[in-house]
Design a protein that fits this description.
Blueprint: E1 2-6, H1 10-22, E2 27-30, E3 48-51, H2 57-67, E4 77-78, E5 85-86, E6 103-104, E7 109-110
Antiparallel strand pairs: 1-3, 2-3, 4-5, 6-7
């Protein structure tokens, strides 16, 4: 077993866990129940994400690095239906819910 990630926010740690499980990496959260405190301050016990297989640790770290990047890899796009500008991460227009030209939102693939 090997630690691959740590964060003070349990919701973010669970999101990281989900990213790994989607890619078939078995993992678990350690110290999640200690986050509520007790006789020791909550900040002194880190909440950690561990993988069961040490050999998957590098893959897990790469997935987490890619999954938690703040920048969008897709360019901004303008809706052909209403003309509204949308962030590249949007699968449909936020204003009219139409898909960008050349995509099918039902399977999330380019046509």
């Amino acid at each position: 077993m090997k630690k691959v990630y740590s964060h003070e926010n349990l919701a973010i740690l669970n999101s990281a866990k989900n990213l790994l499980e989607i890619d078939g990496i078995e993992c678990f959260i350690k110290n999640e129940y200690h986050a509520s405190g007790g006789h020791v301050g909550w900040e002194s016990i880190p909440i950690e994400l561990w993988v069961h297989d040490d050999q998957q640790a590098a893959s897990a770290a790469a997935i987490l690095a890619k999954g938690f990047t703040a920048t969008s890899e897709s360019p901004e796009w303008a809706c052909l239906h209403c003309g509204e500008k949308n962030d590249g991460s949007f699968e449909t227009c936020w204003k009219c819910q139409k898909a960008p030209a050349g995509t099918d939102p039902s399977n999330n693939k380019s046509l």
